[in-house]
Amino acid sequence: MASPRLETYCCPNRDAATQLVMNFQPDVFCGVCIGSASISLLLTILQLLPKKGQSPRKLPKASSSSTILLLISICDILGGLGMIFRSSVWLGFPGFIANISVVNGTDVWPSTFCVGSAMWIQLLYSAGFWWLFCYAVDSYLVVRRSAGLSTIVLYHMMTWGLAVLLCVEGIALLYYPSLSSCENGLEHAIPHYITTYVPLLLVLMVNPILFRRTVSAVASLLKGRQGIYTENERRLGTEIQMRFFKIMLVFVICWSSNIINETLLFYLEMQPDINEMPLKNIRSAALITWIIMGVLNPMQGFLFTLAFYGWTGWRVDLKWRKREIPWESMSSSTVGENAYPSPVNYQSNIHDSKKISTTDSQQTDEAISMLSEGNTSSDERLTRSSPIYQGW
């Protein structure tokens, strides 16, 4: 799982609260992490592979939103691989890991592995948090018609730049001036924990606001597309709202245990002796949430694919097929079917207004289709109700 305690454990003079959770059934904990990360990794890849008997996901054009969803899954996959590798080494080479506790040891490889693997996990999951924030921003901008493929470059710069900057800054402050002297005071640890949890708290607090504003904008677009708000439009708006709700629900389920656990451990650190009897329930709660973190953190990747695309099935199709964009085919077929000479008494301004209306409605359909990407029923209803399909 992803926790700043992983980096803190690399300090030979670690605090008592970190020592408590890291020494609690380490073999069981590593086994839980390996099992949860392996299951999530396999199911996530299965979800992303094309399936037999299913048409490829239909998009009016390549969108930044669909690219962001894929990048979130990639971050989860790479973070899960880091958890599997780290826990496997801990289980397979207990003597190697034991050297981390040696304050004046000459072997630097155990500490190097500890710091490197912890940074890898933190960096990938932190980048996933930033990409999820970018997805909320992009969804809102798409509806406002202020986003496009060009914005993905800005998202890359912001996501990877902030993830690397915060990770390196937090690690540098934690291990300053050397690995053997870190954790001598909270002035080392607190900046590290802040840089770790900033993107997580940003998603928890800002994404619901952006999603709510996006849903309101989608409702306005659907009402203004044809001047009426039919059952299809209402159902499509509800499905987009449910998709955002599922995304936030998965995020809260997977990471709320981290916030609870960190709060309990910080409270224990403030006590003169964490082994006192009145603190028994708090210690038990901290250990329970620690194990829960090992289960839920790696499962984020698979649960997110369910929230993004739903269950895509087991039948994998590894054959490459050209992805057809139905909007282009429908546009060309519509033109072919309706290619009749227009009467001479049609005024040009009426023809131009129809073209503008068709263009605006098509842009609205494209924006909404990007938000409902991966939902077959939504795509079908949107296609049936679009002006292009009706031959406008």
UniProtKB/TrEMBL annotation:
<keyword id="KW-0812">Transmembrane</keyword>
<keyword id="KW-0297">G-protein coupled receptor</keyword>
<keyword id="KW-0807">Transducer</keyword>
<dbReference type="GO" id="GO:0035643">
    <property type="term" value="F:L-DOPA receptor activity"/>
</dbReference>
<feature type="transmembrane region" description="Helical">
    <location>
        <begin position="153"/>
        <end position="178"/>
    </location>
</feature>
<dbReference type="GO" id="GO:0050848">
    <property type="term" value="P:regulation of calcium-mediated signaling"/>
</dbReference>
<dbReference type="InterPro" id="IPR001414">
    <property type="entry name" value="GPR143"/>
</dbReference>
<protein>
    <recommendedName>
        <fullName>G-protein coupled receptor 143</fullName>
    </recommendedName>
</protein>
<keyword id="KW-0458">Lysosome</keyword>
<feature type="region of interest" description="Disordered">
    <location>
        <begin position="371"/>
        <end position="392"/>
    </location>
</feature>
<feature type="transmembrane region" description="Helical">
    <location>
        <begin position="119"/>
        <end position="141"/>
    </location>
</feature>
<feature type="transmembrane region" description="Helical">
    <location>
        <begin position="67"/>
        <end position="85"/>
    </location>
</feature>
<keyword id="KW-1133">Transmembrane helix</keyword>
<dbReference type="GO" id="GO:0072545">
    <property type="term" value="F:L-tyrosine binding"/>
</dbReference>
<feature type="transmembrane region" description="Helical">
    <location>
        <begin position="190"/>
        <end position="211"/>
    </location>
</feature>
<keyword id="KW-1003">Cell membrane</keyword>
<comment type="function">
    <text>Receptor for tyrosine, L-DOPA and dopamine. After binding to L-DOPA, stimulates Ca(2+) influx into the cytoplasm, increases secretion of the neurotrophic factor SERPINF1 and relocalizes beta arrestin at the plasma membrane; this ligand-dependent signaling occurs through a G(q)-mediated pathway in melanocytic cells. Its activity is mediated by G proteins which activate the phosphoinositide signaling pathway. Also plays a role as an intracellular G protein-coupled receptor involved in melanosome biogenesis, organization and transport.</text>
</comment>
<dbReference type="GO" id="GO:0033162">
    <property type="term" value="C:melanosome membrane"/>
</dbReference>
<dbReference type="GO" id="GO:0035240">
    <property type="term" value="F:dopamine binding"/>
</dbReference>
<feature type="transmembrane region" description="Helical">
    <location>
        <begin position="28"/>
        <end position="46"/>
    </location>
</feature>
<keyword id="KW-0675">Receptor</keyword>
<comment type="subunit">
    <text>Interacts with heterotrimeric G(i) proteins. Interacts with ARRB1 and ARRB2. Interacts with MLANA.</text>
</comment>
<feature type="transmembrane region" description="Helical">
    <location>
        <begin position="287"/>
        <end position="311"/>
    </location>
</feature>
<dbReference type="GO" id="GO:0032438">
    <property type="term" value="P:melanosome organization"/>
</dbReference>
<dbReference type="GO" id="GO:0005765">
    <property type="term" value="C:lysosomal membrane"/>
</dbReference>
<dbReference type="GO" id="GO:0016324">
    <property type="term" value="C:apical plasma membrane"/>
</dbReference>
<comment type="similarity">
    <text>Belongs to the G-protein coupled receptor OA family.</text>
</comment>
<keyword id="KW-0472">Membrane</keyword>
<dbReference type="GO" id="GO:0072544">
    <property type="term" value="F:L-DOPA binding"/>
</dbReference>
<keyword id="KW-0325">Glycoprotein</keyword>
<dbReference type="Pfam" id="PF02101">
    <property type="entry name" value="Ocular_alb"/>
</dbReference>
<feature type="transmembrane region" description="Helical">
    <location>
        <begin position="244"/>
        <end position="267"/>
    </location>
</feature>
